[in-house]
Design a protein that fits this description.
single chain, alpha+beta, Jelly Rolls, eight-stranded antiparallel sheet, 8 strands, about 25% strand
Length: about 170
């Protein structure tokens, strides 16, 4: 009984396909390693459609800090990977508070933020800050590490105003 024959090209094709698939997978792993996103915890309400609008409207840079990749939905970071300014949309909206409330107002857009030092026991130039929008749901949080506070003003909150103002304000600081 004659045995079926296969052409050499038919035998090589699967091997080439495996090689191509392996090369593609290696390239994807290499690209993932190059991008090295900043790990950021996703906020509980990050899936809110308003967060997508906010993130899309955010600037590419803040006070000379360039935007860098993050690994979570509704998050953006700027600056150096080891000490980035991080924005998370969809955090729990704060209720009435005794924390310091500041209004970032550029004459066109005004946003109220609760300003909380990350470590009240550290020296003033060694304190990072967390700013959380007040009177907006979903709320937006911006963490500014001490390394950035020590070398820059937090006036970039003004630059975030137009994007954050896409979330309607329902309460204001007193």
């Amino acid at each position: 009984m004659p045995q079926p024959t296969s052409s050499p090209s038919a035998v090589r094709r699967p091997a080439r396909n495996r090689t191509a698939a392996a090369s593609a997978a290696a390239a994807l792993v290499g690209l993932a390693a190059c991008s090295n996103p900043v790990p950021v915890e996703v906020a509980p309400y990050a899936a809110d459609p308003l967060c997508a609008s906010v993130v899309l409207a955010l600037p590419d840079s803040l006070e000379g800090l360039e935007r860098i990749d993050t690994g979570s939905q509704a998050t953006v970071a700027w600056g150096e990977r080891d000490a980035p300014v991080v924005l998370r949309c969809g955090v729990e909206p704060p209720g009435p508070s005794t924390e310091q409330c500041v209004t970032a107002d550029d004459g066109t857009t005004a946003v109220d933020w609760l300003a909380v030092p990350d470590d009240a026991t550290a020296a003033e130039d060694e304190v990072g800050w967390t700013f959380t929008t007040y009177g907006r749901a979903p709320a937006v949080e911006v963490r500014v590490p001490a390394e950035v506070v020590g070398s820059r003003s937090t006036s970039f909150l003004l630059d975030l105003g137009p994007a954050v103002a896409l979330v309607e304000q329902t309460r204001a600081c007193l």
